[in-house]
Amino acid sequence: WSEMTRQRPARAEAVRRGLNAGFSPALARELGDAVPAEVTEREVPKWLAATLEQRLVVADMDSIIDRGGVYALVGPTGVGKTTTIAKLAARYAMKHGVKRLALISMDTYRIGAQDHLRAYGRILGVPVHTAHDADALRDVLVAIGNKHLVLIDTPGLGQRDDRVAEQRQSLMANNVQRLLVLNAASQAEALEDVVAVHRAGGLAGCLLTKIDEAVKLGSALDVLVRHRLPLHYVANGQRVPEDLHLPNRAYLIHRALRTAPAAPYVLRDEEIGFAAVGAPRELQPVPAAS
Ligand SMILES: Nc1nc2c(ncn2[C@@H]2O[C@H](COP(=O)(O)OP(=O)(O)O)[C@@H](O)[C@H]2O)c(=O)[nH]1
Ligand SMILES: [Mg+2]
């Protein structure tokens, strides 16, 4: 590593900045390897920001609201699915009125879970339909007729829950596009796990919530970049509908790279070296015997 720092200081600087911003070692290494020879150490911050901006996939502006479709918001409990549906519904209502908007709740496991969405539906003047399984969903979709935008709220399922596959099948059987809701304040590896489980069958993209609570955006953006998940909206608070925004790539990347780690989390040079080049064999974790 010290050899590399000496020979390719720009590469070392890119890896250091990536890791300190909370990006994964895998992506930090990849970025380090991608630093062109002519980029100097001083130019690295600018190069890094531009490269990450380029690699963060953002969906066409407001395409869900403007193009419409049938979408379900999926993801773990408490990430903000119901609140985000309310925000999207309000955003749609402000732009296009409510006549061609429909809301469906599939959150029928927990007592009172639908009341939350119903309350928002009442405020907007949009009825909230319920469907507990694939057949019921098909019936509701037929009954509501030809709507421009249909938003489906789903129960939060832990990514280890067997019902994730069942839920995916119910939605796919009805040609519902799935949007994954990710809490930006979650642990990096939890986000990775959530994406790994939900991406099967293809996701229409994702929404990033709670960016107001996230100390760093690096982990969330890292997952989006590595999985090339198109980002549709970001949410930065509880207020409906104000706290929903179109993603601004430059802002998100700037915020991710700007945040200095808290003292206990600052990596030392030799630690950055391990991440960058891979730990020596004797320090690598022993693979689990299974
Ligand atoms: N700080 C913050 N809180 C949010 C955001 N989005 C949702 N919440 C809150 O997170 C909690 C769970 O939201 P909810 O929509 O019920 O999550 P669900 O279980 O995925 O449906 C509620 O208290 C919301 O007000 C956000 O962007 N920022
Ligand atoms: Mg909910």
Give a structural overview.
This protein is an alpha/beta fold. It has 13 helices and eight strands. The protein has an eight-stranded mixed sheet, sandwiched between helices. Helix 7 links the parallel strand 2 and strand 3. The longest helix is centred in the N-terminal third of the chain and has 16 residues. It binds guanosine-5'-diphosphate and magnesium ion (MG). The site of guanosine-5'-diphosphate has 17 residues, from helix 6.
Q: Cofactors and ligands present?
A: guanosine-5'-diphosphate, magnesium ion
The structure class reads alpha/beta
DSSP strand content: 5-15%
Number of helical segments with 4 or more residues: 13
Number of strands: 8
Number of domains: 2
What string gives the helices and strands in order? Answer: HHHHHEHEHEHEHEHEHEEHH
Strand order of the largest sheet: 3-2-4-1-5-6-7-8
Largest sheet: 8 strands, mixed
CATH architecture verdict of the largest domain: 3-Layer(aba) Sandwich
CATH superfamily of the largest domain: P-loop containing nucleotide triphosphate hydrolases
What's the shape?
Answer: elongated
Roughly what percent helix? 40-55%
Low-pLDDT runs of 5+ residues are none
Mean pLDDT: 91
From the alpha carbons, calculate the radius of gyration and give it in angstroms: 21 Å
CATH class of the largest domain: Alpha Beta
What's the N-to-C terminus distance? 33 Å
| Named CATH topology of the largest domain | Rossmann fold
